[in-house]
Automatic annotation (TrEMBL), chain A:
Keywords: Cell membrane, Membrane, Transmembrane, Transmembrane helix, Transport. InterPro entries: MetI-like (IPR000515), MetI-like_sf (IPR035906). Residues 102-292 form the ABC transmembrane type-1 domain. This is Sugar ABC transporter permease. The chain crosses the membrane at residues 38-60, 102-130, 137-154, 174-193, 273-292. GO terms for biological process: transmembrane transport. It is found in: Cell membrane. Belongs to the binding-protein-dependent transport system permease family. Its main location: membrane. It is a multi-pass membrane protein. The keyword Transmembrane helix applies. It comes from Rugosimonospora africana. The keyword Transport applies. One of its GO terms (cellular component) is plasma membrane.
Automatic annotation (TrEMBL), chain B:
Gene3D superfamilies: MetI-like. It comes from Rugosimonospora africana. This is ABC transporter permease. Belongs to the binding-protein-dependent transport system permease family. The chain crosses the membrane at residues 65-86, 124-144, 156-176, 346-374, 404-427, 455-475. Pfam families: BPD_transp_1.
Automatic annotation (TrEMBL), chain C:
Keywords: Signal, Transport. Belongs to the bacterial solute-binding protein 1 family. Residues 1-28 form the signal peptide. The keyword Signal applies. It comes from the Bacteria. This is Sugar ABC transporter substrate-binding protein. InterPro entries: Bact_solute-bd_prot1 (IPR050490), SBP (IPR006059).
Length: 306, 483, 435
């Protein structure tokens, strides 16, 4: 397991390790070195602890009775761990709004991811391997759309969805996510597909394969790493989105982020619902994150390689 | 992409918009070794299609296929991205209902109305502070994580916040920032430190019953309004102490009785249910033990005493008159009350810290990749030349990874320009105005109470204009990158 | 719990923005849950969530049991209006909605989105509600709705033990109230928690003081902005309020970061920090939920004190039932909601006050709610929550100008004149944009 992006690069030896210390250094220098290293370890793990704190706090609050949370901080639990309870989670399982919104999140996230990957892959293949006039322009325009802020489109898009009678419903949210997910998907996949050895494709073409056949049998299998990276990335994006849902979904079709935000209105009294809700909503992306960590990080880093 | 929902949205995209020419830049070239996605092997030819020279019929057929393959994507992009951009520009020049032409009035409003100006100002603060802060921390963590055991665990911990929605993050940070030291972990931590340097007294919040006897003397202490001579007995009535918090052992207050050659008095809790007589000891009113009383003359403390369990104190060995009695602030030190992190004045810095928490892991990863790809020989050479680690970092490492740092910075700048969720979720209602940024304002103006699509569109266009440099960069790079 | 209890920035869909002026199409969009052809299934939208939602569901079940018409309830949470706007935009309004702001109802009525009450429903309202309440449902001479659930917002809750320790009794005049607070402070407790992180409790504070300082007529004029906020009566009310808030050792520290629900916990929770809390009857439910204090035992209430000899007055709020679609089922549901039988179901469950005069007060589970309900039903001096009648941008939502300015006023109560001027400037802008 490795989070580093350089897992296969053997030259990655941490600088300043013993290798670099000349043997002739004095005792004092070595003691200082040892001391410095210990200090370093302490520093680093303090940072790590600090980074865990907000999440741990939220988790513990989600396991405490609401009356406890409004009176004392979560850390007091270390004195009285017996006061932890699963009742918030049990209540959550009874809460139709939260459960419904989790399901809405699935209904929004899965189609969005599939569509972005599917439509994006087709377009990326065409842009990478089929010659046609204006190809570079199409590609350039698509790439230009990558950083377009959603704000510049939400008002007219709401009107579009209204005309289509999907406003407030799941398809509207999905359509918007697909639209704004495509430019990056095309960019990422085209870039990757372009690296496929030409001979492979030419061979398939010579064998009389149709373009669709080549796409399915050659491009998609080879492109799996990039497609997986994109899919994981897209999944997390859509799952965690708030703004698009806020604008295009009504409360009956609200995903979990939206639902949590509306529950936050009564923040302190609803922490018994928000705490576990937020934690459950974290679980899905965290599971995806740990299962596909490599892909996720690749997706994130894809741009910086370019 | 979206300005908001996607925590890890900006980077990948933005990074496409930046960086240096890989062909010419050694660091970038080096970085290519750490191929992010293991590419299929083969010649890295950017324009594979052109190389083919198939017959015309095949070309035509392929064009049809290309059209079919591209159609869904292009239709969606045209309908839901491209056309809406034009429509938004058009709307931004019209009134709130989108019916009457108003020219640039909406844009003028952006720069003249107080709330949008505040949003612009906050966005400026964000852009100026957050990307730099995150990059600096990312660099520090990247360097540290190279030298630490279990680096992967450390890195995983730091990257994890990125996988979580900003709404959940916001909820977690609302808890961290709670103003009450009883509930907010940050204020609780400060409270511990605070109490070490300024321990809380048993009587926080205690105050004189009667301003004619004692008055505030700065820093939370009190001093008598009159001066006294030896042989007098001074009554110092206090209130504001809950009876059940008076230390055990306190008994009915009692005047010490006049003693010649001494200055004496009593400090007591001058309160019985209903109030009791002001400045007189009623039955049931307890003395306040353990209060330090100072006798001051000519601005100098000449003696001090501590009250007994009946609240009595006596100064012996004093002569003459002109003594002021003072109750120093340490008698009343209040426990730490908590910093109002989410109040209007600290709200933006507070949210920026939460932002740092989310993004530092990202910056660390990218920078680590850059560091890992540095030519080790150069670093070794510098070390052998006797450079200290700090010098190596400053003179060699940082210049070498600069292109990567720029990638991270630009990525974050674009992300920060569009920031929405974090501000919207963390800032409580009473601080929303103080924390507002352009994207939040756009949402509120368009979909909140005033439903002004003209002004909302103008704000959308403004955001668009702010990221245009990045778009231009994207396209330019693309063309320079032979394609 | 009031609508505003769950206020906050605008959530929910967009809608109206896009379509201002567009007509409402008749066909149901995909978002519509209810109203199939046979009229056998209805949809109701309201603000209630959680326990309140469960209680309202009981009321609806009562209807289904009688008529065999299925009713689905959709919660709009704190932003019922935005949900309704969005539904209207999509051409799929609910059959019936319970709208917390009469101002919004009036807007819908004027735009022709509502069905005026007729037949059984109108008859039920006319026989079950007092004139003071009926008037509130009339727009342009037509009856469009009635208040199903109402709140008494002229109540101050207090801790019985703190009052006993300080030796004070519930005050009835403002002067008493001030001296009571001082005595409480002297006894070593913080007299009162003022949750200024949420703007709406402060607007309610102001409204109670204003109604007592300026009287009912001026109150109505100010609500309609026919009276300027710079009027001396406003300055006087702010001076009274600011004088109290500004008194040292009176309000709990950190007021501007104190949310309403946290304030309830700070007064009636495990670790009490203050002795009193001003807000409506709905506080009772929250106190019970915390489980540390018993309403009627440890937590009692007194009515908002009279100022300069003002007559007893009630600031109220409530959810107004209105009908968006006409069908026999929807009409039957409206008539049912206006009946004492429907009110009784929730009244017995607690946390509910009805303006229905026919509801037997014995339906209420405890003495305090009975007293509050009686004041509401019989009082001829009922004024509706002012901020609920103003344009949303002024007093109707999180971040609204009045909320923000009054929150600032709690933090800096020193200059009532300047606050009044700022309120007037905001009102001029916000009321202007509505027309």
């Amino acid at each position: 397991m490795s989070v580093t992006v350089t897992p296969r690069v053997p030259t990655l030896v941490p600088a300043g390790t013993a290798v670099t210390v000349p043997p002739r250094r004095s005792l004092i220098a070595r003691v200082a070195d040892r001391f410095g290293k210990a200090l370093l370890q302490i520093c680093v793990w303090t940072v790590g602890l600090f980074w865990l704190l907000p999440t741990v706090g939220l988790f513990i609050e989600s396991l405490r009775a609401p009356a406890d949370n409004s009176a004392t901080g979560w850390w007091t639990v270390f004195g009285r761990p017996a006061r932890l309870t699963l009742s918030n989670y049990l209540n959550l399982m009874q809460d139709k709004d939260i459960l419904g919104s989790l399901w809405n999140s699935v209904l929004i996230t899965v189609p969005s991811t599939v569509l972005v990957v599917g439509i994006g892959a087709l377009a990326a293949y065409a842009l990478a391997w089929i010659d046609f006039p204006g190809r570079n322009w199409v590609y350039a325009l698509t790439v230009a759309l990558i950083v377009v802020p959603v704000q510049v489109a939400i008002i007219p898009d709401a009107a579009v969805f209204r005309t289509l009678h999907i406003y407030g419903d799941v398809p509207a949210v999905v359509a918007f996510h697909v639209a704004f997910g495509l430019p990056f998907a095309i960019f990422l996949l085209r870039d990757f597909f372009a690296g496929i050895p030409r001979d492979l494709l030419e061979a398939a073409r010579v064998d009389g394969g149709s373009e669709l056949g080549i796409f399915r049998r050659v491009v998609l299998p080879i492109g799996r790493p990039a497609i997986a990276a994109l899919a994981v990335y897209e999944f997390m994006w859509v799952w965690n989105d708030l703004l698009v849902a806020l604008v295009f979904a009504d409360s009956a079709h609200a995903p979990i982020t939206y639902q949590l935000l509306s529950q936050m209105r009564t923040f302190s009294s609803n922490i018994d619902l928000i705490g576990p809700g937020a934690f459950v909503s974290m679980l899905v992306p965290l599971v995806v994150f740990f299962s596909f960590r490599r892909y996720f990080l690749h997706g994130m880093l894809a741009g910086s390689d370019k | 992409m979206t300005g908001a929902g996607k925590p890890f949205e900006g980077p990948a995209r933005a990074s496409t918009a930046t960086g240096t020419d890989p062909a010419r830049d050694p660091a970038t070239t080096a970085r290519r070794r750490v191929a992010v996605i293991p590419r299929p092997t083969g010649p890295d030819r950017p324009d594979p299609a052109r190389q083919a020279g198939p017959p015309a019929t095949v070309r035509r057929e392929r064009r049809t296929v290309a059209a079919v393959f591209l159609a869904p994507a292009l239709m969606i992009l045209a309908l839901l991205v491209a056309w809406p951009i034009a429509r938004t520009v058009w709307l931004s020049l019209h009134d709130s209902a989108g019916q009457h032409w108003v020219g640039l009035r909406n844009y003028i409003t952006i720069f003249s109305a107080a709330d949008t100006r505040r949003a612009l100002l906050n966005n400026a603060v964000w852009v100026a502070v957050a990307p730099t802060l995150v990059t600096v921390f990312g660099l520090i963590f990247a360097v540290l994580s190279q030298r630490v055991r279990l680096a992967t665990v450390f890195r995983t911990i730091l990257v994890m916040p990125m996988a979580v929605s900003l709404v959940s993050t916001g909820i977690a940070w609302r808890l961290v920032y709670d103003e009450s030291p009883d509930r907010g972990v940050l204020n609780a931590a400060i409270s511990v430190v605070h109490d070490v340097f300024r321990p809380a007294s048993p009587y926080p919040g205690a105050r004189p019953r009667d301003a004619t006897v004692l008055s505030a003397a700065g820093h939370g202490g009190y001093a008598s309004t009159h001066t006294f001579a030896v042989g007098t007995q001074v009554m110092l009535p206090l209130v504001g102490v809950a009876r059940d918090t008076v230390p055990g052992g306190a008994v009915q207050a009692a005047a010490p009785g006049t003693t010649n050659g001494a200055l004496s008095g009593v400090v007591w809790l001058d309160f019985t249910p209903g109030g009791g007589r002001v400045g007189a000891i009623d039955r049931g009113e307890q003395g306040l033990p353990g209060i330090r009383v100072q006798a001051v003359r000519d601005g100098r403390v000449v003696a001090s005493a501590t009250t007994d369990h009946a609240g009595r104190f006596t100064f012996t060995g004093l002569h003459g008159s002109g003594f002021t009695l003072a109750l120093p602030a340490s008698d009343f030190a209040a426990p730490f009350g908590g910093v109002s992190w989410l109040g209007p004045s600290l709200i933006t810095p507070a949210i920026i810290v939460a932002y740092l928490w989310i993004w530092a892991g990202f910056a660390m990863l990218i920078i680590s990749a850059g560091l890992g790809a540095l030519p080790r020989e150069t670093l070794e050479a510098a070390r052998v030349d006797g450079a200290s680690e700090w010098q190596v970092l400053r003179r060699v490492t940082i210049p070498l990874v600069r292109p990567v740092l720029i990638v991270v910075m630009v990525t974050l700048i674009i992300n920060v320009l569009k920031i929405f969720d974090l501000v919207y979720v963390i800032a409580p209602d009473s601080s929303q105005d103080a924390a507002t940024v352009v994207a939040v304002q756009m949402y509120k103006v368009s979909f909140g109470g005033s439903l002004d699509k003209g002004l909302g569109s103008a704000l959308g266009v403004l955001l668009f204009v702010l990221v245009i440099p990045a778009i231009a960069f994207n396209v330019r790079r693309l063309r320079r990158d032979p394609s | 719990m009031s609508r505003k209890l769950q206020h906050g920035a605008a959530i929910a869909a967009v809608a109206l923005a896009m379509v201002a002026g567009c007509g409402i199409t008749a066909e149901a969009g995909p978002g519509s849950a209810g109203s199939d052809e046979g009229g056998r299934s209805l949809e109701v939208i309201g603000e209630w969530t959680g326990a309140e939602q469960a209680n309202f569901q009981k009321v609806l079940n009562g209807f289904t049991a009688r008529t065999h018409i299925r009713v689905t309830y959709t919660s709009g949470g704190n932003n019922v209006n935005i949900l309704l706007n969005s539904r209207l935009t999509g051409g799929a309004p609910p059959d019936v909605a319970l709208v917390p702001q009469p101002g919004v109802v009036a807007e819908y009525a004027r735009k022709g989105k509502l069905v005026p009450l007729a037949g059984d429903a109108a008859a039920a309202v006319s026989s079950n509600y007092s004139d003071a309440w009926k008037r509130l449902g009339v727009v342009n001479g037509k009856l469009y709705g009635f208040f199903f659930k109402v709140a008494n917002k002229s109540i101050i809750w207090y801790r019985v033990d703190d009052f006993a320790a300080a030796g004070v009794r519930p005050p009835s005049t403002w002067t008493d109230f001030i001296s009571t607070s001082k005595t409480l402070a002297d006894s070593g407790v913080t007299p009162i928690a003022v949750p200024a992180a949420d703007g709406w409790p402060i607007t309610d504070w102001f409204e109670n003081v204003y109604l007592r300082v300026a009287g009912s007529d001026k109150y109505a004029q100010l609500a309609a902005h026919r009276l300027a906020w710079t009027d001396p009566t406003v300055v006087r009310a702010l001076t009274v309020l600011g004088g109290y808030f500004g008194t040292p050792n009176t309000i709990e520290k950190g007021a501007t970061q104190l949310t309403f629900t946290q304030a309830i916990a700070d007064v009636f929770g495990q670790r009490p920090k203050a002795a009193m809390l001003y807000e409506g009857d709905f506080v009772a439910g929250e106190i019970s939920k915390l489980g540390a204090a018993r309403v009627g035992g440890d937590a009692k209430l007194f009515t908002f004190p009279s100022i300069d000899g003002s007559a007893p007055a009630v600031v109220s709020a409530g959810d107004e039932a209105v009908q968006f679609r006409d069908s026999p089922g929807a009409r039957a549901l409206m008539a049912y909601l206006a009946s004492p039988e429907a009110a009784k179901i929730w009244a017995q469950a607690g946390g509910f006050l009805s303006a229905n005069s026919k509801l037997d007060l014995s339906a209420y589970p405890d003495e305090s709610s009975r007293a509050m309900a009686q004041a509401l039903v019989t009082s001829s001096l009922v004024q509706f929550d002012m901020s609920d009648q103003t344009p949303q941008a002024f007093g109707g939502q999180a971040g609204a100008d009045e909320w923000q300015l009054l929150t600032d006023f709690v933090a800096h109560p020193g200059d009532p004149t300047a606050t009044a001027a700022a309120l007037e400037a905001a009102a001029a802008r916000d009321y202007g944009s509505r027309s």
